[in-house]
Amino acid sequence: MQFGVPFSVLRGCVRHCRSCSSPACGWRAQWRRSYSFLKDDVKSLRAVVNPDISKIRNIGIMAHIDAGKTTTTERMLYYSGYTRALGDVDDGDTVTDYMAQERERGITIQSAAVTFDWKEYRINLIDTPGHVDFTLEVERALRVLDGAVAVFDASAGVEAQTLTVWRQADKHKIPCVCFLNKMDKPGASLSYSLESIKTKLKANPVLLQIPIGSGKGFIGLVDLITKQRMVWQGKSWADDGRLFESRVLEPTDDPELLEEVDQARGGLIEQVADLDDEFAELLLGKYSDNFDAVPAGKFQEAVRRVTLARKGVPVLCGSSLKNKGVQPLLDAITAYLPVLPFFKHENLQQLWMTVLVHDKQRGPLVFLRIYSGTMKPQSAIYNINRNGTERMSRLLLPFADQHVEIPSLSAGNIALTVGLKQTVTGDTIVSSKASAAAAARRAQKGAEEKRGSALSNRESSSLVLAGVEVPDPVFFCSIEPPTMSKQADLEHALNCLQREDPSLKVRTDPDSGQTILCGMGELHIEILHDRIKREYNIETHLGPLQVAYRETILQSVTTTETLDRTLGEKRHIVNAELTVSPWSESAKRHKWHPSHEKSCFLCAGPLLGYPVQGVSTVIRSVHVEPGTSLAMVSACISRCMLKALQQASGQVLEPVMALEVTVGEEYLSSVLGDLAQRRGCVRDIQSRHDNKVLLATVPLAEMMGYSTVLRTLSSGTATFSLELASYEPMNPQAQTSLLNKMAGLS
Predict the structure, then answer these.
(1) Given pLDDT bands bounded at 50, 70 and 90, which one contains residue 365?
(2) Beta strands, E only, 260-350
(3) Hey, which end of the chain has fewer CB within 10 Å, N or C?
(4) In angstroms, rounded to a whole number, what is the distance separating the alpha carbons of residues 194 and 152?
(5) Dihedral (C-alpha) 699, 705, 708, 712: value to the nearest 10 degrees?
(6) Non-local CB neighbours of 32 within 8 Å, separated by 6+ positions
(7) 3-state secondary structure of 185
(8) CB neighbour burial string for 455-468, b if at least 16 within 10 angstroms, e if fewer
(9) How far apart are CA 172 and CA 316, in angstroms?
């Protein structure tokens, strides 16, 4: 061998040179220069540019925070040959966590796309965040993907954010594969994880593998379809999991393992037969004498049909950090997840969907999911949402923060473009305005033929694909530049961040003139503040975090208002009468003039000026003298609305969060006592191995700095997650305290 050192040692030294004392580490620079003679050299993204559509898999990885999504992604890239070394979240050197904030905190903040091939398949993969503050990142990724891998901590099963991302996948009808990660942890439990998937996700887990060993003794797994026994026996620090033993189970193997496999496989055959009629017919016909003799290929086809129909979810297991079970997961992705749910719009031959990010060198970078047609650089495109035409300058293939320029890309792929200045997340773009107009005419003609002309407008609007549903912010604070000369730079930075992140809202306070930053949580606003500093070189000052309350009313009130104003030589006279009442499902909806609607729905609450919700408004009458302008009509109705709200007994609504705390039993009483002081309401206390899982609801206003307090109460062992549950009326004492505080009386 070259250098006189065994290959395995050299390969390990490249990855571990900081801690290795072997003299081979001195050859690191020469090794990197000479790496190309190896068969397993790192691959180029140019190797596969336009594969056959049937070989493309567009998938996302989703999970609760710290379940191992990014580590799993890192192993996929390494085993597929696209990275030289295994990155580690704790070391801050993973491919998909490339932002400085991600590497410092060891969490995923922004979804990252990577493209690689596995065997003969192209996989476009998006690694999504697991923190609740960045749920929108998961939403905007899932809506353009065909399948998803849900990663679970095998010792915890379904966790709080797992439920959220699973609901998002359900909403978009995305087939999923479950990966029970961390099977090497002492508390890992296959049965517990499967039961939590059934009970909490209301899903039907289809177990395809069983582990060999448990906890630290976990060494491999058995594929129940092929009866392949896969074992990763490497124990040295240089082992990277690439090489593992794979063979068919033999009668001489461990009798307990054989019995467990037979029972699990028999149960799997019955389960798939119940879910797939074609497989059931095959069993009852050709293989009625021996179900176990069904070919693995037919078995896999049946599991694929069950997965695509979303009747069941394949479940696999492994340990990404210990380099076990990732290759079979890649095989499952290509075998069971969809090819491309061929979105085929009958009226459009070229259709693309967008997600936007910003790059400080290149400017706006637009990710595009190509649903039909082919895309080339220097092409003009028409944005249906913005009703405008733009030209893209370059077409790139994404690989986290590294990109490869390509000459064209066909349907089914995810591309990255440079040069689109007006396009934002969720827009639908096509090749030209003419093609969109022609498609609209065809859609309208088809609607008239099929359903009558009354529905033609709805039909033509279907040319625009569904956008992103953006949740309302729950936190806000003021943000100020260091000097007034930096105000324009701050506004530019906020505009760029808003285009990239639709969950960020920026407004100007009408009284103070301050810029107000509205976000999804403490971490969200903290990250935005840090990005403004690092990426735009602006040292901003943040005001104290405040909760985004809402307001409603408790009584019905009818009131009148008269506006009599002379402007120049014109006299404007308006008389309005309206009724406000607590909103109910049975309230009738009326069509209003646009000026009336604007007046009523842009009204601030009477107590603190927060947005009003849960109020039904009925305009009884509006008398307008000739020559009166619409602006005066709107002003009169707005004054009448505010007057009615002030008389209708205002009520503050506060955001109430669903809290999940995982804590050791010895610290449970301390955590419960603290929650009682925070106006928390305990809903349930569950057991999870040696820990307790506390489920509660608690007002968001009481959760400021909770992570620090919980760390102190539990000696750093407890974890928690928060998610907005609902807006609930404040109790009278808490409301009075809030009003006094806002008025500066306390």
Answers:
(1) confident
(2) 313-317
(3) N
(4) 10
(5) -50
(6) 14
(7) coil
(8) ebeebbeebebebe
(9) 23
375 neighbors 359 (Cβ within 8 angstroms): no
Q: How many residues does the chain have?
A: 746
Confidence of residue 12 (pLDDT cuts 50, 70, 90): very low
3-state secondary structure of 153: strand
**647: its two tokens:** 């008389």
Structure tokens given for 746: 């306390």
Residue 405: how many other CB atoms lie within 10 Å? 12
Pair 84, 65: CB distance under 8 Å: no
Strand 414-418 to 374-375 pairing: unpaired
The residue that leads in pLDDT, 695 or 604, is 695
More confident of the two residues 352 and 498 = 498
Element at 458 (helix H, strand E): helix 456-461
* pLDDT bracket for residue 464 (50, 70, 90): low
- Centroid of chain to Cα 726: 20
| The pLDDT value given to residue 458 | 39
What is the C-alpha R_g of the chain? Answer: 30
pLDDT of 185 over the 80 cut: yes
Range from 105-114, 343-352, 504-513, 613-622 carrying the lowest mean pLDDT:
343-352
pLDDT at 38: 34
Contacts of residues 91-99 at CB distance under 8 Å and 24 or more positions apart, as own/partner, are 94/70, 95/399, 95/400, 96/70, 96/127, 96/400, 97/70, 97/127, 98/400, 98/401
Q: Which two tokens stand for residue 540?
A: 């901003």
CB-count burial class (<10 Å; 0-12, 13-18, 19+) for 376: exposed
Helix (H, G, I), strand (E, B) or coil at 526: helix
Q: What is the dihedral of CA 711, 712, 715, 717, to 10 degrees?
A: -20
Distance separating the N- and C-terminal Cα atoms of the chain: 78
Per-residue model confidence (pLDDT) at position 109:
78
pLDDT tens readout for residues 255-288: 999 999 999 999 999 999 999 999 999 998 888 8
How far apart, in Å, are the Cα atoms of 491 and each of 5, 148, 356, 510? 58, 37, 18, 17
Tokens (6 digits) for 14? 């490249």
